[in-house]
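hey so u asked for the seq, here:
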Amino acid sequence: MQVNLGGIVPLSTVDWLGKAAMVVFLQGCPLHCPHCQNRRLQRGERYVPLHYIVSRIVSEVKGLPGPSRSALLSEGPDHASTSCHSPLQIKLDEAEQRAISKPFVDALVLSGGEPLLQPQACRHLFRLAKSLDLATGLETSGIFPDHLEMLLEEELVDRVFLDIKAALEEPDYEVATGRGHSASAVKKSLEVCFKSGAIFEARTTVFPNFPSTAQLEEITGALCRLKAAYPSSRLEGLILQQGQPAEEESPFFPVSIEKMEQTAEVCRAASRKEIEIRVHALPSLVWKS
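ran it, structure tokens below
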């Protein structure tokens, strides 16, 4: 089986707060979000055998030398290769960091791009993670609700991080994603999460031009209605993330954390405190081989 791989972060503490996660980014996404932080993962092909990623996961978790490969996010698609022939070489200080961090890797997160564009790859990698006693997390735009439902029904995902781009109506969602008729798919994914009883959190990234405070109130209202319809659901909250300029776009000043806290308080009031709403600044991730 071949997997369209975008890159791997061996250790992250920001994708899943409270967990030390290995993050596998899968290439490809049907959306065209204007401020996408992982734009290089939207298009292109850099296929590798599934067993290459399996070897990487096992070697990282067990603290063993693993295969090295040059097709990382920092490179363009033209550099992609399906061969894995280079020996693993790291500096002494990085070796020390790895020796310290290895025993604490306790989760696997699949991200993208849109990981559910490759549902069978997700299924295989999550099964591997379960066999290694790793917690499993999925970061998704919700554009493929049927694939999400499949993984949840098979109990392969411990936590879903669902990215809600805007108020769940058109044309707002088309403006936010560059793709028409996507709001209905995300609505269905939300309902799948509420119905399944899976632990999940909703995430909305806030930029200066969108979503507006009114749209964020609409998102909060939608979550409140679904929570009332599914009282045994396990929504852990709505996270408002501070949007940063992507590498390829013109710089802009992010919405201040103070302003975001004010907006969060408006949403908390609108939800009558039924939904926990938190504000996070987005850190920068470092890609490693």
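Residues 213-229 form the longest helix (17 residues). The radius of gyration is 19 Å.
lmk if thats what u needed
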